Amino acid sequence: MKDVEKLLKESSADVLPGDEVKERVRAELGLGAQTERRAAAAHGGTFALGKNTKIALIAAALVVILTMCVVLPIVLDGGSSSVPPAPPILMSTQGDFYAYSALAAGSVLAVMNSSGALALALPSPEVQAAIRDSAEEYLRLVDGLLSGGEISHTSAEVPQKYAQYAYAMTVSGTGLGGNTLTYTLYYNENLSSEEIDGEETEREYDIEGVLSTPNGDYAVRGGRESESEYDKDESEEEEELWFNAYIGESSYIRVEQESERESEDGEEELERSHLISLIENGKVVESTTVDLAQEDGETEVELTVKRDGAVDKLQFTRETRGGKDILYARAQFSAGDASFRVYVEDGGYRFEFVDGDEDDDFDDDDDDDDDRPYGGRH
Amino acid sequence: MYMGTDKRKLESKVAALAGGDTRAFDYIYEHTNRAVYFAILYIVGNKHDAEDLLQDTYVRALRSLGAYREDNFTGWLVQMGKNLALNHVKRAKREVATDFAEQSWRFGAKEEPLPYVYDVAAKALTEEEYRIVMMCSVAGYKRREVAAMLNMPIGTVTWKYNEALKKLRAKLNKEDI
Question: Which domain holds residue A159?
Answer without folding.
Answer: 22-105+148-294
